[in-house]
């Protein structure tokens, strides 16, 4: 099944075995890609050397910080992907962790690791903004 076929399916097929398999394949591919990016960033980190010139040292440090951020982002993504794969196994994938409502295929295609429907995510972001503005 491809994305177009997925979106053409009736609502009664929501999180059917075929749809779950589509998302398992999507997440598995994303997991493999994240591992590749992680390995590449780690390898690049190992190749960075210290430079005797201050300007070169600053440039190298900037590159190092960028690579460290990339490593951390990919680690976090891998954790989210593994959680999403476990939700598929447990039968919870595609359902909002807060409301129990369907997350929706389009949202899952955009963010396959999400566990919140758009309404719950909006409420979460509004609470976070309120906490930040109160601080």
From TrEMBL:
Origin: domain of life: Bacteria
Keyword terms: Metal-binding, Plasmid, Zinc, Zinc-finger
Alphabetical list of InterPro entries matching this protein: DksA_N, DksA_RNA_pol-bd, DnaK_N, Znf_DskA_TraR
Xref: Pfam families: DksA_N, zf-dskA_traR
Domain DnaK suppressor protein DksA N-terminal as annotated: residue spans: 19-87
Zn finger spans (dksA C4-type): 96-120
Domain called Zinc finger DksA/TraR C4-type: residue spans: 91-126
Protein name: RNA polymerase-binding protein DksA
